[in-house]
Amino acid sequence: MSQLTTKSLSWLSVLFGRGKTQSPAALHLQFVKMLDIAAEMYTSVLTAILDAKPDAPDITERIEQLDDQLADLEQDIRRDILVALSASDNVAQDITGMLSLLRLVTDAERLGDFCKNIYRVFVRESFNLNDDQRAILRTQHAWLVPAFAQLKQALLEQEADLAKAITKQAREYIRVCGRIVDELIADQTISVNPVAAALVFRLHKRLLSHFSHISLAVFMPYDDSSIDFDQIGV
To answer: What percentage of the chain's residues is helix, strand, coil (to nearest 5)?
Structure first.
């Protein structure tokens, strides 16, 4: 369990606007746990795909269990937010932060959904990536696994530069995934199963997008609806 400090709670305290109750601490622990679960799901799924072996264990049941845990945590946090909002002395002041946290919790839950869906495509289609596609996915996997831990650090310690670096790299990989999908649509002969391969990279692109939404929250205003990525350097 992550150690709670005044600094590590600042992120959720800002979201709440006041930070007077224990709610930020409780939600902090729940949200960090969601990231831990999503990280385990991602590592398990991508390892199964990249190191596929005939005698590899079936991780379907474990993936379903983890996905259920994410859904339960999402519901718990949503309930706690509604309770905190109903007890707020200044709903107008707190509601923006509360709704922003709801969005981030949804992003974390969607990470699990996309992991599960990627694995379902792998199991049902038994697809094979070509060498270039496998190398690209392996590179992104090698970055994203430790990036989960880095994202937690950025959130806990309010490290804006680290969060910005994570967002920048995620956005680059999002573009790469999009390019591969376009290539598979344009020339289906480059893959044994182009539909399955395109779907996997499309799902991975969406996963990276939700991951970057969370890192973006560290250094961007929660109520800023118009983001100029060039201006912020990502």
So the answer is: 80, 0, 20
